[in-house]
What does this fold into?
Amino acid sequence: MSASPVAERSTAMSRFDAQPIRHFLGVIGRTVFVAFMLAFFTLPVLWLVFAPFDKTPGLGVSLPEFTIANFRTLFKSSSALSALRNSLILAGGTAALVLVAGSLASYALSRVRIPGRDMLLYVLLLMSSIVTGTAAMVPTFQLVNELHLIDKMLGVVLVIGAGTLPTVIFILKDFMDNIPKSYEESARLFGARPLRILWDVVVPTARSGLAAIAVWAVVQVWGNFLVPYILLRSPDKSPAAVVMYTFYTEGGQPNLRLIAAFALVYSLPVVLVYFFVSRRYGFRFYGGIKR
Amino acid sequence: MASIRTVKLTKEYPGGVKGVDDLTLDIVDGEFFALLGPSGSGKTTLLRTIAGLESVTAGQLFIGSRDVTQLDPGRRNVAMVFQDYALFPHMSTADNIAYPLKVKKVHKAQRYATAEETADALSLQGLLGRRPSQLSGGQQQRVALARAVASNPDVFLFDEPLSNLDARLRLEARTFLKQLQRRLGVTTVFVTHDQAEALALADRIAIMDKGRIQQLGTPRDVFRAPANTFVAAFIGSVPMTLIPGTLAGGRFAFGEERLELPDEAATTAAAMPDGTAVTYGARPEYISMSSDSRPGAIAGPVQVVEHLGASLLVSVAFGDQLVQAVVDEDHEPEIGATVYLLPNPRRALLFDAEGTRMADDAPAEAGG
It folds into this structure.
């Protein structure tokens, strides 16, 4: 018994000696890891910022020989501008569809008790990743063809909208669940009908959720290549994501000057929308997880 | 203005739990009526059923002469103030107060004029442009009241209107609420679990338990003459001391102790056989304490002394049974000292084995 405190102290001492070294190695390891990850994610962004202003952009990141000629070429080509306009139409249309249908559906699902409601939501969520997925592209194409919506923007809006709706409903339902029922009951006692309650009380209260959903829907459409590529035929209806794919030089090489400039112009609206919505509504994004 | 009448009203939840059980109740026009009970007693369910937010399983509900049992809540012309006030967070005070009028399609200028007028009457001047989050709890409550007033209802329904306020503000708001109700003269039903609030505000109180009314009466009635042990234990800021025991030779016996029978039940109880199980009830305020022996007093050691401000609550042990007395602050006894307790026989009560109060003159009101 009497010897044990001494033994304990000596093991504690040796542990104490090893600690600074281990700590030091840990710091080095973490720093290297973080630097590596940082570089991995920063390099593409740097390319996006520098390459458009470079006279001869390559695939690597280099300090540019400054010029804005690339943009001049870009804005001269009518296809680039109409592509951006098409993207805006598709994104706006899908966002509108998803917001209207999503808020109606999620409000109903949040307030009406039906057996198997949560199961339905999860199944929908699972299925949704298939609808807009590559695997289902052939049946999707056939369906759109049957509906005579090939080469119509409505077709693209419907397909992408349908694909995103389950996720939208899932997320919005959580927002709706968090709105105290007493708000609606109070409005109801004053004689307001359900649609009026939705418009006067629920939508304004859930607007940060709706804003988040709108941004997310816009991003989904903005970056979607496959669906418009397959469902739209005429080049003048193609959105930016598809048009960028057609920028080749006469020699058959990718036209990096045009692609770089277009990439920057293409990414700006999404960034701007994000900042605008974030500033205005503030993102309170909890996802569909019950807390 | 309207009366409220329920006839054999029952609200049964899926699974067979009865929130309101076969309840018949008359609330007079202009009355300030309290539904009092512990949580789960059905008081809020009854309030929400009157509002129409809960459907009725059986029975009828009348507001004024109208049968509103199946009527849509929006057409009953009732206004409810919710426990969380339910102010719309994205609307200003003015918009919140004017909202009922907006739903009724009142012209914009007219409804803001009404909102301003109502806000003035509830001393909300200068707060019309603020959002609910910029208001204090007391102000939020008054905005919720103003919104209810602006809708010009036949009936006010308040769900725990004071429970979200801190203690000091609650007293202020209580007086304000009573004044407002007197001035408007609108029939008002409010739900509370706080007996002091119910006693202070209400013209009449219905004490509820398990979906049924245990007693219906004025604050004085339910305090002085509780119908049963449930009401006796529930009403009063210091709970009534209830002592289970038996009748023995024209007196009440518990353990080794004997007490004179309460005046109001003396004849009835004296006629009953010895050994009948009864419960003796006395409010600590009506039990006097002394350090000297007195005829009829029971003696025991002081166990706990609690300070209530101007008075003390002294708990005295008689075997396992604690008997409490409220005494003057100047007479603080030592812990462990023997004291003599003497209940006032004019204020003491006797309950039978079922817990119903026994009285000589009239049979006790049973639960409704």
